Amino acid sequence: MTSFIKMLGLIAALASPVASHAETLAMPETEVILTVSGAISHSNIDGTAQFDMQMLTDLDGTAFETTTIWTDGVQVFEGVALDVLMDQLGVTEGTILATAINDYTVEIPVSDAVEGGPMVAYKVNGDTMSVRDKGPLWVVYPYDGNADYRSEVIYARSIWQLDRMEIVE
């Protein structure tokens, strides 16, 4: 009997990481502003991860000040760090195909999702961004904080009016 109980304990211990790997995300309660599909480990609707604004703001937020080539002066961006978002989805490698409302798509390597790196911004200077003002979501890098982020390659990855991502391996 003791061996049987030990066996059950071992099975439970081995099953635990598998169960957490298959976690589901909370469900959006308002308009979905970001849908992530593809090679993700955590989802909420039909194998995708769909986020409303509250779900994004509930993730560990970040903020930084930077200038951009598209705006005048220093701007304060707030959002969810790309590494935090990828962690939430269980993504560790591959490429992010980030697509805007108008179907424009850019490729962002998951390796860009590092601490102190880019964010999916949902506010600029304390205000949510309208579609007219590059919103509701904009992938922004801390351009002023790292000279490597001031290149045509990185500027090309800085997609605004973001509404979906696909993770490909």
Into how many domains do the coordinates divide? 1
Largest sheet features: 5 strands, mixed
Can you tell me the CATH superfamily? Oxidoreductase, molybdopterin-binding domain
Order of helices and strands: HEEHEEHEEEEEHE
CA distance, first residue to last residue: 46 Å
Please, could you describe this protein's structure?
Helix content is 24%, strand content 31%. The strands form two sheets. A five-stranded mixed sheet has the order 2-1-10-5-6. The protein has helices spanning 2-21, 53-58, 82-89, 152-157, and strands spanning 32-38, 49-52, 61-66, 75-81, 95-100, 105-109, 119-124, 127-128, 138-140, 162-168. It has a single domain (24-168), classed as Oxidoreductase, molybdopterin-binding domain (Sulfite Oxidase, Chain A, domain 2). The longest helix is centred in the N-terminal third of the chain and has 20 residues, at 2-21. The protein has 169 residues and is of the alpha+beta class.
Blueprint of the fold:
Blueprint: H1 2-21, E1 32-38, E2 49-52, H2 53-58, E3 61-66, E4 75-81, H3 82-89, E5 95-100, E6 105-109, E7 119-124, E8 127-128, E9 138-140, H4 152-157, E10 162-168
Parallel strand pairs: 1-10
Antiparallel strand pairs: 1-2, 3-4, 4-7, 5-6, 5-10, 7-8, 7-9
Describe the structure concisely.
This protein has 169 residues and is an alpha+beta fold. It has helices spanning 2-21, 53-58, 82-89, 152-157, and strands at residues 32-38, 49-52, 61-66, 75-81, 95-100, 105-109, 119-124, 127-128, 138-140, 162-168.
List keywords for this structure.
4 helices, disordered N terminus, 24% helix, five-stranded mixed β-sheet, Sulfite Oxidase, Chain A, domain 2, alpha+beta, 169 residues
